[in-house]
């Protein structure tokens, strides 16, 4: 019998991008999801990074390739390459920082310019553990997401609330879109 080769047995590879202002917690959401790690201090890395996570849906092997801006949010040169081929996006703000929510429109505009109409997008209000510092209500988040046709979830990379669920929902919905297209 041939040895099992993980590289060649994926049924799908989904590219998913993280966007949103600096310091909203994008890197920590990813490290919490992929490695169950949280980092109290921001470490800025040069260039774009991604992590992969294997998921099984409907018996299909899916590799979620999740891209993180790695501190390059303001550098437009990386933008097209970053979004190219993305089928999912988590657009993140910090519920304790109003400005990061006000900037969401800009991130959505960029997403729409650079990616396909059918991209599965979720609005993510991160740091929901900081209830005492909340500046954006859950209702505001939900209603913006509804008006933009996006999924919505509040998360905490610190205490893990909804982190797995947010990524899992996006991956599952991409799978639903893709498998409908194939049929
Ligand atoms: P990025 O610039 O969007 O990638 O943000 P980071 O993941 O680097 O996080 C920025 C800062 O916010 C760091 O100091 C993190 O420890 C902190 N942080 C990230 N997620 C959370 C969270 O869910 N709750 C709290 N309280 N702090 C968080
Ligand atoms: Mg980061």
From TrEMBL:
GO terms for cellular component: endomembrane system. Coiled coil: none annotated. It comes from the Eukaryota. It is found in: Endomembrane system. Keywords: Chloroplast, GTP-binding, Lipoprotein, Membrane, Nucleotide-binding, Plastid, Prenylation. It is a lipid-anchor. Its main location: membrane. One of its GO terms (molecular function) is GTPase activity. Belongs to the small GTPase superfamily. Rab family. This is Uncharacterized protein. The lineage of its organism: Eukaryota, Viridiplantae, Streptophyta, Embryophyta, Tracheophyta. The chain holds residues 1 to 183 of 223 of the full protein.
